[in-house]
Write a structure and sequence with these properties.
InterPro entries: Cys/Met-Metab_PyrdxlP-dep_enz, PyrdxlP-dep_Trfase, PyrdxlP-dep_Trfase_major, PyrdxlP-dep_Trfase_small
Protein name: PLP-dependent transferase
Bound molecules: pyridoxal-5'-phosphate
Radius of gyration: 22 Å
Strand order of the largest sheet: 1-7-6-5-4-2-3
Cofactor: pyridoxal 5'-phosphate
CATH topology of the largest domain: Aspartate Aminotransferase, domain 2
Helix content: 25-40%
Keywords: Pyridoxal phosphate, Transferase
Distance between the termini: 39 Å
CATH architecture of the largest domain: 3-Layer(aba) Sandwich
Number of strands: 12
Structural class: alpha/beta
GO molecular function: transferase activity
Number of helices: 14
CATH superfamily of the largest domain: Type I PLP-dependent aspartate aminotransferase-like (Major domain)
Largest sheet: 7 strands, mixed
Amino acid sequence: MGMTSPFLQPDSVAVHAGRDDLAALGVHALPIDLSSTNPLPDIELGGLSYESMATGGAPHPEGGAVYARLWNPTVARLESALARLEHTPEAVAFASGMAALTAAVLAMTAEGRRHVVAVRPMYGGTDHLLGSGLLGAEVTYCDPDGIRAALRPGATALVVLETPANPTLDLVDIRAAVDAADGVPVLVDNTFATPVLQNPADLGAALVLHSATKYLGGHGDVVAGVIACGSEHAAALRRVRAVTGALLHPLGAYLVHRGLATLPIRVRAQQEGAARVAAWLGGHPDVVDVHYPELGDLVGPGRQMRGTGAMLAVRLRGGYAQAQQVTSAVRLFTHAVSLGGVDSLIQHPAALTHRPVPPEARPSADLLRLSIGLEDPRDLIADLARGLGAGVSGAVTGVREEAGAGAA
Ligand SMILES: *Cc1c(COP(=O)(O)O)cnc(C)c1O
């Protein structure tokens, strides 16, 4: 696939990446190849192609893709776009974020090197999978300051961290973490920040993981995962993907790729709305505190994270009972897990997304996580005001009862 100019601004890359050859193909929209198998030119070339893909390479130029578990051109097209957005040589797409993490651990660990350091807090599914023993890895959990002490020289294969972290929005200094990892590859889950706001590979991360289910897809209609990385890691990941069968379906790849074009404007607009909602929540008497990335050393133009993002979490004075009240009263927000879509979602991490996390690391019961969508923030604030209940509605002027009428 040819490359558009490497000097394009990020917004232009989001629109055009992975589409360079479309005009030559005589099409304008992204083509979808649903073939589960591919005609073989002859035994020899087909065999060479199979061999190449089973060991993490691309199909032999004349051998074809052979079988769709090994390679799919629609998926490869998305991967080339993602690599450009994350400033990495390659990217590898999976059936989900958790399939991507599974492949990363399997690809990076080996006999004698089965130790993984996991920085908490992190997404509950990640915490759970790493601690499950299913992947044959031995895991040490730590906080960002504990990375160096957690390393086992000669045995640690991978450091896994998330910034901002799900659900508390805690930040990790990526450069400092890479430093502390002392040469051990660091995987950064960049799901919350997106490549629009943060490029961990520029700061030394070896692997950049996304649950593409969230912002990259952006419309709540696809489950997908991707890891952006260098060519050596990409080959190891593709090999695991081919043998375990974790390839993203081409229809999913199409949807994620289509979502990329609007990613920058979605993220910026959602971020603007989130800032308004966070400010309002911060002044609400029933809110103990708002977890929201603050402008400072790590956040702001030219910093590790170029903006504050569109995720936030709140602790409620009324605890779990009030969380129950808010989640059942909202109409414009959908009470649902997941995040990063065009519509706003609200959920209780301790009971849902972080339920499998051991009690000592589980988020508190008074915490709600909010994913701010593209609605007018005034309508979102009105919805939250109603959810938080009596005594506060007077503080919000212009609250319209019909604000929730369009809620999905
Ligand atoms: C949702 C999520 C995942 C898991 O991704 P799936 O696509 O659901 O498998 C991983 N990390 C973070 C931060 C997430 O929010």
